[in-house]
Design brief:
The protein is built from 17 helices and eleven strands. Strand 1 and strand 2 form a beta hairpin. Helix 3 runs parallel beside helix 5 and helix 8 packs across helix 17. By secondary structure, it is α+β, with helices and mostly antiparallel strands.
Length: about 450
Amino acid sequence: MGILALALQIAGAGNLNGKDSDESQGIARVEKAQVALYTSDPGNLWNRLHHALHVRVGPDGREYGAERLDPLLWSSTTHLRNGPSYERARAVMEEFLSTRGERQIEDPQKRALLQRGLWAVFDWYVSWPYWHAGGDAVSKAVQPAFAARLAEIIRGVALTPEQIQKLPDNYVAAIAAKEFAAQYDSNQPSKPFLPPDLLYPGSSWIRLGQEWGETVAPQHLSEFGGRSVFLVFIRLPGSLRMTAQYLERVEKLKRPNEELPQFPAGTQVALVRRMLLVDSQGHLRVSPLVESVQIRVYAEVPGKDGRRRNVEETRKQQSVFEFVLDRAKLFRGKAGGLHAIETTESDFMTFQTHGFDPFESKQAGQGEFVKGQFPMLLQCFVCHSGSGVVSIRSRLSLGFDDDHSGLGEAQKTMRWKQQRYEWGLLQGIGYGTHSAPRD
């Protein structure tokens, strides 16, 4: 079953298509969201910049994306490349640069989060030639001046290496707040829990991967453009020794997961996403900020086979939890900014969607557009629907490491990023001597 086919199954029925965006359809009524993330004033320059780059208007007239961690942008998206959205974003960026907008807010966390969003938009914007044919389409869709403005603001709000290092560890803050349970409760299998020892020495978890070789979660690395470090942890029921013995056994086999011995029911797997930033000198830095945590608990582990299971089968076998960084919550100093996704929450899929933009589809109406928002906790089943060890996409036989800092994984991630076209372009027009022209 393909990715989109399984996604449709998650949605229940129908297709993912929606009408054109408001700019092509001329929708008169737009329910505007009041963006007040960086200050309480929606008219603040930082808030307006965030709104211009992150907010999309659907065919239903509503605004989406204001509070979302990652922008609603796909490889096929034309939003921000021309038309009113381009003009609005360009004007706000010009105002930001001409008034030295970076001086308005000194808070390191807010500067880090603004840069993070700008960087994601920049990478998406300049990568168009890799997704589409060359010629006039590229020259019209990738405006050097637009990319240059993004790069200048990224540099303008950048923190020093020391400031990045001193950013608060929001996972520690989340644990200290005691807003979430500390362990899984089989009697309440949908109750979110956040393990206090997941990321720290003396943990009952073991991190997968080794210092050299391929990254432990290459698909996640690629999908999010190398702007985050992904760490994978596993914990078998019982003692730490049981987990270590199992991993030692599978490491020696050097086989794909489908050919590895099954782990027992009660096994837990966690995927942690840690934020990378660009410092004031243009260097990549690992920050203490955790962007998301996904945890899967295998309540049932039936016989091992390689087939994908349907959503209902998988839901019986796995309990899934996800915590996502919420800017507003982080800025308020509440639970490290981590928000536990509820079973009723839905969102658009941006991971492995083959570039499909539901805001710009010409093939369907509002009903299908709404169906394009899937239950967030079920989205993981698109890729992780196998039985037990088969559902884990990271190669268990790659090895493991008790270094919970993930320094080796971070170094591999940064080396990968430094080979990318968009990174070289950011260095050249944002931090180098070559600046793109202004129009």
